[in-house]
């Protein structure tokens, strides 16, 4: 990390960011996002590498179906895009994929968007992934505990007549999977944790020597149910939890229990996000807001250092997922001049973010991938820079 004077202001240059949890929707749902628009959004957010989740059509559950996504990546991606393969055939949770045939093509294995409900299927998957030397990344959600919920089962839900999602629906599966990971020796990664219990379970598992890492997302570190509005841009899965959960997540980031921050970038159309908390699709975009939101809320407020934030957004995910990296993967950041988050200026096709209208610091001025500029902020006059 170094400081330089460019664009008429003092800037910081650091390793470009890595996001191990994004949804680019192609193939199958390109009306929401494409590999090209998603990778352009990632570049605009300071990322040089992202990993795309498998809730696609076709589901990448075989070499041939994964090749459909890989061919689009080779043609259209402006940065390094690494796809996941699914854990089970069709992401149906019934039959484990041929892990050995997919290991060299996929960054890891996940049924993201769905929890694997059957313990026997998850055990078999972990055994296969461990044998192949891969990583299993789990979306932990017990369907039997959802009860039609769509926000956190807390004070806001009760006060506004909404159906709630219990915390146990997340941490119960984490508890099950940590036991299986210890027994099978499978490298295990937990996606988008949101509860205090999840943090505690993973912390204790690490102390016992379980090969486990986890991620959380910017919205879980900055927001909580107190910030909810009757608007689809506040609806995601897992939901925004309680203030106590948010504080536990921050503590988990600071003590190393939480290894990395991933956006769970999940674009939908404006119509899909226009139906309030109950009727809107779950998911918000995050690639173009992650760094400024976290820098403003955590670094400028003295919660953590800039170096620690870069470690969570770059170094740690690269190390865990074996993503390598190039010295020419860099991001130039303006930390001095504030700006307002405006989804109308996003490169992503998705515009739904709970951070719309928020004043933040930490604008990405330039992103380089292998030494080539893949994004440069073109309107420096808008911020008064230069």
Write the layout of secondary structure elements.
Elements: E1 2-6, E2 9-15, E3 17-22, H1 35-44, E4 47-52, H2 63-76, E5 80-83, H3 99-102, H4 119-132, E6 136-138, E7 151-152, H5 155-160, E8 164-165, H6 168-184, E9 188-190, H7 196-207, E10 212-216, H8 218-222, H9 243-254, E11 260-261, H10 276-279, H11 290-299, H12 306-321, E12 330-334, E13 339-340, E14 359-360, E15 363-369, E16 372-376
Parallel strand pairs: 3-4, 4-5, 6-9, 7-8, 9-10, 10-11
Antiparallel strand pairs: 1-2, 2-12, 12-15, 13-14, 15-16
Helix pairs in contact: 4-6, 6-7, 7-9
Q: Can I get a quick summary?
A:
By secondary structure, the protein is of the alpha/beta class. The chain has helices at residues 35-44, 63-76, 99-102, 119-132, 155-160, 168-184, 196-207, 218-222, 243-254, 276-279, 290-299, 306-321; strands spanning 2-6, 9-15, 17-22, 47-52, 80-83, 136-138, 151-152, 164-165, 188-190, 212-216, 260-261, 330-334, 339-340, 359-360, 363-369, 372-376.
């Amino acid at each position: 990390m170094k400081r330089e004077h460019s664009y008429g202001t003092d800037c910081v240059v650091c390793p470009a960011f890595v996001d191990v949890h994004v949804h680019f929707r192609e193939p199958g749902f390109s009306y929401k996002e494409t590999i090209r628009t998603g990778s352009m959004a990632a570049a605009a957010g300071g990322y040089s590498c992202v990993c795309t989740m498998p809730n696609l059509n076709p589901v990448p559950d075989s070499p041939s179906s994964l090749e459909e996504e890989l061919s689009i990546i080779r043609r259209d991606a402006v940065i390094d895009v690494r796809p996941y393969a699914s854990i089970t055939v069709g992401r149906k949770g019934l039959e484990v994929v041929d892990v050995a045939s997919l290991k060299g093509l996929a960054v890891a294995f996940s049924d993201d968007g769905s929890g694997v409900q059957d313990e026997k299927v998850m055990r078999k998957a972990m055994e296969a992934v461990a044998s192949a030397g891969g990583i299993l990344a789990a979306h932990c959600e017990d369907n039997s505990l959802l009860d039609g919920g769509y926000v956190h089962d807390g004070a806001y839900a009760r006060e506004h007549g909404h159906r709630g999602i219990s915390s146990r629906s997340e941490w119960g599966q984490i508890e099950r999977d940590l036991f299986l990971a210890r027994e099978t020796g499978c490298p295990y990664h937990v996606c988008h944790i949101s509860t205090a219990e999840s943090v505690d379970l993973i912390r204790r598992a690490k102390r016992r020597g379980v090969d486990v890492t986890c991620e959380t997302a910017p919205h879980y570190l900055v927001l909580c149910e107190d910030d909810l509005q009757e608007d689809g841009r506040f609806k995601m899965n897992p939901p925004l939890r309680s203030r106590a959960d948010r504080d536990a997540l921050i503590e988990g980031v600071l003590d190393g229990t939480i290894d990395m921050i991933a956006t769970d970038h999940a674009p939908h159309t404006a119509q899909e996000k226009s139906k309030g908390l109950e009727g809107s699709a779950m998911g918000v975009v995050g690639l173009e807001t992650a760094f400024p939101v976290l820098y403003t809320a955590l670094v400028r407020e003295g919660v953590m250092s800039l170096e620690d934030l870069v470690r969570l957004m770059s170094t740690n995910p690269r190390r865990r997922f074996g993503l390598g990296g190039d010295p020419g993967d860099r991001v130039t950041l303006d930390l001095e001049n504030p700006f307002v988050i405006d989804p109308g200026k996003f490169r992503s096709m998705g515009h739904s973010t709970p951070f719309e209208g928020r004043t933040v610091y930490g604008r990405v001025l330039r992103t380089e991938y292998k030494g080539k500029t893949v994004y440069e902020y073109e309107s420096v006059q808008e911020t008064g820079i230069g």
